[in-house]
Write a structure and sequence with these properties.
six-stranded mixed beta sheet, Metallo-beta-lactamase, Chain A, elongated, alpha/beta
Length: 266
């Protein structure tokens, strides 16, 4: 047995515990009589993750739930293998469940054909045993997580409130960056703004993201991020994720009115 390094009471982050990166933060929720994982990472690190849990003296048979924060492969490519190894149930938002059960390599980012990027092993289909959504509660021994639906990065992105902590997924990172905004994900900038606004207004003291370090919730930083991505809605840079492109709309209006473009200064 090795010494458990609790980040907060009942919470072990396995990258910090192992002093090595698994590519995504993996949170073990210790409920005393049972435990659960928030995300499991990829297949190539799963054996090491499970061995670490064993060395921490958690009975593998006491794993209550394997929870997907969302369906991206870096978070859950190993989910089917973990479900089989631990004989534990899986849980995800219904939108994530559809993608995971189908083993959709493109929407999960296991494969990006245009960049010739492919994760070894693809995205193995995984049965999702429990569908969770806004208002669901997950009891893990003496711990209880309240489920938030926080779409934006993906339609099925979830966050989890536990006492003064918020497991915030890929919504926001310590540097104010957010999870990738991309059409293949089904990203929605308006939804992102709503989710970030909710996090800004919450009373959580600490945010526990899926990448990077844990940090204290900072409404000013969150507002700065909201202001930035609000602009993204009206920029051609974001393609079909933008809600409109004012420049093109004005140009089309000028075309319809027979106006020639102004060649003066900006």
């Amino acid at each position: 047995m090795i010494e458990r390094k609790y980040l907060f009471p009942g919470v072990i982050e396995l990258n910090l515990q192992a002093a090595r990166s698994f590519g995504v933060n993996i949170y073990l929720i210790d409920g005393g009589t049972e435990w659960a994982l928030l995300d499991v990472g990829q297949e190539d690190t799963l054996d090491e993750v499970i061995e670490l849990i064993r060395e921490l003296d958690f009975q593998l048979s006491k794993c209550k739930l394997l929870i997907a924060t969302h369906a991206d492969a870096d978070h859950v490519q190993g989910l089917a293998k973990a479900r089989a190894r631990l004989k534990a149930k899986t849980a995800a938002h219904p939108r994530s469940a559809a993608v995971l059960e189908a083993g959709d390599a493109v929407e999960t980012y296991a494969s990006i054909p245009a960049q010739d990027f492919h994760i070894e092993g693809g995205m193995p289909p995984c049965k999702i045993d429990v569908k969770i959504d806004e208002g669901s509660e997950i009891k893990i021994g003496k711990r209880k997580l309240k489920v938030w639906s926080t779409p934006g990065h993906t339609p099925g992105q979830l966050s989890f409130k536990y006492d003064n902590l918020l497991f915030s997924g890929d919504n926001i990172y310590k540097d104010g960056c957010v999870g990738a905004i991309d059409a293949h994900h089904g990203s929605s900038i308006p939804d992102y703004i709503k989710s970030l606004s909710r996090i800004r207004e919450d009373d959580a003291e600490f945010l526990l993201p899926s990448h990077g370090p844990v940090f204290r919730r900072d409404p000013k930083m969150l507002q700065k991020t909201i202001d930035r991505i609000t602009q993204y809605q009206y920029m051609a840079d974001f393609g079909t994720c933008a809600v409109s492109w004012p420049l093109q709309e004005a140009h089309e209006k000028d075309i319809a009115l027979g106006r020639m473009p102004s060649l003066g200064g900006s």
